[in-house]
Amino acid sequence: MMFSGILMLRACESSNISLEQVNQQRLKRNGHSIQEDDFSTIVAEHQDMVLNTCFRFVLNREDAEDIAQEVFIEAYRSLENFRKESKLSTWLYRIAVTKSLDHLRKKKRKKRFSSLKRVIGLHDPTEELALPSSTATPEEVLSGNERTEILQDALSSLPDNQKTAFLLSKYDGYSNQEIADIMQTTVSAVESLVHRAKKSLQNKLEKHYKKQ
């Protein structure tokens, strides 16, 4: 995949490392030398997950690719700190979520989160957003845009921890235990975050439509 090669080269250049150095990376754990998967393999196997995760938070393909690059740079530099008791994918997911939230805070793009329809739907970030139906009237198109904006505002108003737990649960289908591992918290805390997120979204939407 072209993205894999480009991301690999950009990550290596930004880290001031060569592909040969990457492929020779070894970790020391419990007194034993462990041959890690070469970095290009790590990128190839996990790039889609990382890119999709970043995209769902920033909703911009170029930004998502830049953040994904940062994720793998951070992963390479932190390989020695990777704890084998956790999954590599969980570890990378955690970095991707953190980097994405940092990006949003810095750029003040908190209103650019996905609508609820896309959160619980099957949106592919590699595809262009669908154009309005050719049979839709201007009024229908406007109404759809308004609903999307309302949902975006409701989701973006959630605290970061609620938003993250909600996305992981309702979009990615992660179990509460997996979300707890990613967010480095307890299962009960995850359950509370998801519940509060749902309740908050419901209240915000009900209040909006009662005003209509």
UniProtKB/TrEMBL annotation:
Domain RNA polymerase sigma-70 region: 43-109
Gene3D superfamilies, per the entry: 1.10.1740.10, Winged helix-like DNA-binding domain superfamily/Winged helix DNA-binding domain
Transmembrane segments: none
Protein name: RNA polymerase sigma factor
Annotated NCBIfam families: sigma70-ECF (TIGR02937)
InterPro entries: RNA_pol_sigma-70-like, RNA_pol_sigma-70_dom, RNA_pol_sigma70_ECF_CS, RNA_pol_sigma70_r2, RNA_pol_sigma70_r4_t2, RNA_pol_sigma_r2, RNA_pol_sigma_r3/r4-like, WH-like_DNA-bd_sf
Superkingdom, taxonomy of origin: Bacteria
Species of provenance: Chlorobium phaeobacteroides (strain BS1)
Domain named RNA polymerase sigma factor 70 region 4 type: residues: 149-201
Keyword field: DNA-binding, Sigma factor, Transcription, Transcription regulation
Claim: Transcription regulation is one of the keywords in the record: yes
GO molecular function ontology, one term from the record: DNA binding
CDD domains: Sigma70_r4
GO biological process: DNA-templated transcription initiation
Pfam families to which the protein is assigned, alphabetical: Sigma70_r2, Sigma70_r4_2
